[in-house]
Amino acid sequence: MRKLLICLPLFLLLNACISAPPGLEKSEFRVQNLRKLSPDDYACQCKEVRFGGKIIAATALQNKTKIEVLSLPIASFSAKPVLTSTSDGRFMAYLEGFVDPETLKDQYITVVGRLMGMEKGKIDEANYDYPLIQVQHYKRWKLVEEYYYDPDDWYDYWESRRFGGFFFFRPEPRLRYNLY
């Protein structure tokens, strides 16, 4: 019981540290999924949206940069794209100012902005209607490889040592990807 009383406040404190960057905070009024967009949202041009995903292409234009993003669901609190999920479509976003397109390719991004309508385009030979976002805030995420040990592997290692088992067994690190 004592451990629970110590761990619970610690858990709540650490959980509060997982927050979205400034400008990307969750709001009740923002659309956060491409599938939830309705024709009325496009006609209104007043909806605030928060989308994220992987940048597929970027083009520098006069005083702005146009990016095509493969949309991924975003984590509710941290606003990071969820790497293990499947895409729910694509969208176009316009960033103010010049951003070098080569630095944007294959990066992950979360954008907050206004839904400005649809833009017609093509994906290979197929016609596609892209939701168009005028970006107000955005965050580029850095993809990092991390090695970690599964706790079950360490348990097996120490159990084998305890009973005089093979001493050459060492757990293998596993690889995972995180966004920072």
From TrEMBL:
Segment forming the signal sequence: 1-19
Ranges annotated as spanning the membrane: none
Keywords recorded for this protein, A-Z: Signal
InterPro entries hit by this protein: OMP_Slp
Coiled-coil intervals: none
Superkingdom of source: Bacteria
GO cellular component term of the entry, any: outer membrane
NCBIfam families: slp (TIGR00752)
The protein's name: Starvation-inducible protein
